Amino acid sequence: MGPMQPHVTPVTWTLVVPLKPLSRAKSRLAGAAAYAPLPELALAFAQDTVRAALECRVVRGVVVVTDDALAAGELRALGARPVPDLPGDGLNAALAHGAAAARAVEPGTAVAALNADLPALRPAELERVLNTASGFSRAFLPDAAEIGTTVLTALPRATLSPAFGGPSRARHRASGAVELPVAEVSSVRQDVDTTEDLRAALALGVGGFTSALLAGSLPGPGR
Ligand SMILES: Nc1nc2c(ncn2[C@@H]2O[C@H](COP(=O)(O)OP(=O)(O)OP(=O)(O)O)[C@@H](O)[C@H]2O)c(=O)[nH]1
Ligand SMILES: C=C(OP(=O)(O)O)C(=O)O
Question: 3-state DSSP call for residue 17?
Fold first, then answer.
């Protein structure tokens, strides 16, 4: 930055990552259970997601909303802050609760919901998504299938107002959030719900937890 540039305070983000109990996670991935147990896959995806998120330069912290004691311990070990769900309320309540927990500690923080199933996540691509989001009060990134959402953002004065679940892209757009105009961020969009998604994530390159778990039994094309 040159000497005559105005001083700009960069936006830094607290991410909120939701993770349901591992024993119930990733039911649509049943086809991949031949390669590794589903609870272990769900944990490895979350570990790779959280580790990459914490390596992103504009991320100041990660809150993981989960009632799973094993996952909470493993993700705390990576540097995340686990908080339990509110009793019986589901995904969007968990995200709103996590955003409130983040702002209880850091009142001025921008917050972003991030799916826990992004094992190919690259910190530099997440940084480009978040830097683009710093220009909008609320914004979102559609998933690779163009139906759901992988990231929903809110600047410090905005409320997150999450509407995840199924066709959430249209719901987030209807809520007034801006669809982020950012290209070539496949690693931030590639969520893994099905065996086909897992193949796509493996083609992008997954993180160390997922690749170690699948070592020797990688699901290749058409298998
Ligand atoms: N804390 C919390 N996280 C949730 C809850 N429901 C879903 N999630 C998480 O939100 C994300 C999207 O959830 P889903 O697509 O419903 O579940 P999934 O485990 O990814 O996949 P399926 O079981 O195949 O539907 C995942 O990271 C889940 O772990 C909830 O009630 N509480
Ligand atoms: C919850 C969502 O994700 P998925 O169902 O694809 O995991 C969503 O995209 O809103």
Answer: strand
